[in-house]
What does this fold into?
Amino acid sequence: MEEKKPNLVYQKNKKSGVVYVYEDSPYWVSRVKQSRSKRRCIGKIDPLTGNIVPTRGRRKSKPQVSEEEAPVENSMLSVVSRKFYGATYLLDSIGEKLGIVDDLKFCFPDDYKKILSLVYYLIMEDKNPLFRFEKWGAIHKHPHGKDIPSQRSSEVLASITADTQAEFFRRQGKRRIEKEYWAYDTTTISSYSETLLQVQYGKNKEGKRLPQIKLLLVFGEESRLPFYYRKLAGNTPDSKTVKNFLVELDVLGFHKVKTVMDRGFYSAENINGLYKEHIKFLIGAKISLTPVRQALAEKYDEIRSFEHYSPKHDVYGYTVPSEWNYEQERPYNPHFAPHFI
It folds into this structure.
């Protein structure tokens, strides 16, 4: 075995950025006819001077000292860390004020802190995947206070059932049902997924026909806070979503509801359904409809006058009372069918 003169090898730690210096001693092994090397860390590079600073050796025996010469050790250990608190304190305050923390704790008593931490991460990190939670959690204060591995986060999200989700919607909705109107709207999300059954061809808001999924959302008109959503097939027209929405409102226990919808939801079937459930509503309509055209024709020349102007909403308008021919289809009952003799 022949030894050669040692060389210096520089290696940078990717996490800390520290450049360590190793003493590399190559040698030749005649038995296997191959080169080998021994490497020993002798120090690290000082970023200011560029000199090699020796590092402390490991597993070195401590010199024996008498009890009188031994220094007094402090039993209190302190761990210094640097974390960001501001954004999470703000989210904590918002969650407590809106009752989100209490409702999550009621619906998910075992995992509500993990859910809050995941929500904080998704809000603050926007589009970053969940497997990067470990790095974020190490430098941010969050409710769970510990790392949530990617597999564990998937298990937590998968444990949210339809029943617990509905209970959370119900509790959040009852906090604001008496205070404001509910805005009801849908949006489309384009997708080329071949595994999601709800991805269907349909027209988006710009009128383009694309494979998409439709997301229904209900939120408070004044608070701008959502409390209900539902995924729908991409080819479902807006006018066909109201019927199912009214059924789910009844299941959630909401009866005295006030809703606001745009003209995409206008149809005779929807108007009749809203009247049937005794729900107060405000809905947009196309100006091509006969009742709308007749009402506009009477005030067309004077609608842009000061008496019809609303400075609060910066629009011109006026109110016209009208009648609606309410129709309701009743199921056929043979006991009440007419009998002829």
